[in-house]
Amino acid sequence: MITVELSREVLDTVLDLAADEVFLLRPDGSLKYANQSTLIRRGFSMDEMLTKAVWDWNSFVTESSWQRRWESLKQIKSARFESRHVDKNGESFPVDIQAHYLCFDNDEYCLCFVNDLSELAEKVNQLDKKHKELAVAKSRADEALKSLHDLQERRSLLFATIAHELRTPVAAISMLSSDDSAESWQDARNQVHQLARDLLHTLDDMRRLTQDNHTREVTSEQFNLQNLFESVQLSVSAYITRYRMKMQISASNNADLNETWLYGDLYRLKVVLSNLVKNACVHSGGDQVNISVSRVESAEGEQQLTFRVEDNGRGIPADQVDHLFSAYARGVTDADGSGLGLHIARSWIEELGGTLRSIPNDGGAVFELVITLKSAKRSPADGVVEIGKTAIELSSVFTDTSKLSVLLVEDDKIIQMVGKKLLSKLFATVDIAGDGTQAVDKLEQRSYDLILTDYFMPNMNGLELIRQLRATGYTGIIYACSAATLGSEFNDLIDAGANDVFAKPLTLNKLMACLANDVEIFQQAKQPILDGKLRMEIKFATRDELLQQKSGRALLLIDMESGEIQGTEKWRQLNAVGAQQPLTRTLLNQTIPDESRDKYVSYSKQFFQSPVGNPPVVLEIKLCALDGREFMGRVTSEKVELEGRVVACTELEEF
Length: 655
Description:
The protein has 21 helices and 24 strands. The chain is α+β, with helices and mostly antiparallel strands.
């Protein structure tokens, strides 16, 4: 063991050159000594520093509290703690302090080794920030996972409903088609027509499931109770036969089946009553099901109908009644099923203003359906259109439709042929265009009172056609009649400028119902023949007027000369740009991720080299909002002239 004795001068030198800050404090809190690291960090000279006391640089020590701290240190001899010190400029910074009690030459001191924690604190802050960012990212991931789960549940509900609602009519049509005799087909014509209509209704119901903000339209037609029960019998006949059930239909004296005429949603009533009968066949375990109806007529021309569906099976346990109408709920049964029948039935009846409930019973299951419908005094007549719950005579809509002309834009040859034959019953002229491009060519040659277009077509589809016509200032009536009604197509067509949209098949009732709503526009708007090629001539008085008129859209305006940029509130929301944040090209570039940059640059060159008046340029790419959210967007750009200046008008749609 080697012992080295250091002189006072050597020890002072070692402490003075130490990287850590070193203090030597007297019992009264005054400073005896400070090394060079201390002076450099705080910005004081030695003379200045020696005039200070511990409470002058330590934020947590006061003159009154120092004495307690000193007495405590004398007892424990050594302590380590964190605090905050202040430099010459008044800036506070975190420190780690090791304090030791010393006594030599009969003098007492507090020797402190001080370590600056500023860099460590910054790293901690960065880690804390990263932790918060990760927490936000996790929260978003959890939300995305929940959205995915919700989407999967909706898809399961959709597929289950498809199987539930389509199996019976498809099976019935398949059975009918197996009989190839002409006599059988002639006898079954009305039944096939009814089954086909039911399938189309079901497709419309699928649209309701895929769009949260879309409720199934309540249809209305004239029918009597005999029509209703004949439809029910046709729908359930296979079940009655398969499960060897007996079905009986009865009516009270005041509910004559042939004479009780009503306005209402025949399809929904048929489906609900049929589902109740099918449930009895499949799940009850009995051999008899009865449907009864009674009615109470009011002075206001309405009738309250009460339907009861009863079976003689095992019944429904009391503890299951409360959950009976929940989606996917199933009673005690070994039979296959989706658990959707009663859930769909109740929701549909409630949308009609009625009620559906299970009635406690000692024997089999009993369901009661109560609904109020408008009375009809006669059977349906030709020339009557059902719009909602109102019957409108065609003569009240147009006095002479034979003077009107229509352009049918449709690519399917059979629908072209049948559609022209149907429309010719109303219109003097019916012309056919196979797609949007052919429609534009025909519009350059003559005018039409009505344009009726499909959605999906080659070359130029219906959506592109409507956008292009409206962009030229075309104000005539445009209807879209399409099978594309399950996704966002309906809203897309309306947003593009269609006056109305209805699902195929085309019928005179649907068409005239739309025309009745637009009769004033129809009678006033006679479109001129378009002179030459369609031109983009969107004109507004000012940029503010354009922004105000399109405030609900994600729109961006760039002055091609000055570079000034304006954006709507919707555009800022999509891109996570603050309401007061200036819009610059640098900011816009931040919304284009690296993987989309080459595609966007090519698109921009094409657009900026195009002259004013050219059709819009469209691009679909991945985009990135300023908060890091990535999404697929459709960018549609066109050049317009505002106040004598060329402006790039760009609309952004997320999809």
